[in-house]
What does this fold into?
Amino acid sequence: MKTLVLNAGYEPLSVVSFKRAVVLVLTGKASVLQSDRDQPIRSETIAIDRPSVIILGRYVKPPRGRRVMLSRRGVLRRDGFLCAYCGGHATTIDHVLPRSRGGENSWTNLVACCRACNGAKGDRTPREMGWTLRVTPAPPRAGRFWLSELEEPIDEWRPFLTAFGWGAERPRPHAMARSEAA
Ligand SMILES: [Zn+2]
It folds into this structure.
């Protein structure tokens, strides 16, 4: 079990060991937002609840420059689980330029897509379909995408993650039919 660290603006920043979290709290750098009372940490002098979520007292600039690994889930998350073509709930990803025509696996050629659009598009380009992309696919910005631990968040973290797109995987009603332009 680990501790979720939120930046001073409540944005998920990192995941650390309980031990590290306790040090951050005891040194006044962070405060506890949620803790697990059933499993206190005991030392010879103190017993404290295990923090499951802590928040930093001061805003920390998220580290930059780390490359974000391309992943199917990452593409879905970047696009907010919304189809790049119709805006409906996306459950798959689509190669904008189809693989069969030289399209590569990259952040700029992959978009979130609903099954209907994915199936209709097949091996064609959006232009051939008369579709326009609702988004300009680009590598995601730094931050939450690095936190591979959040792929499977523990329950205590969830309330602190949803505001930042984590947990958005829950099915949403298909908001719109495919673009009229299609
Ligand atoms: Zn769609």
Summary: The pocket of zinc ion is lined by residues 83, 85-86, 88, 113-114, 116-117, 178 (CB under 6 Å). The beta strands are 2-6, 12-17, 30-42, 47-56, 92-95, 110-113. The CA atoms of residues 98 and 123 lie 6 Å apart. Residues 167-182 have pLDDT under 50 and may be disordered.
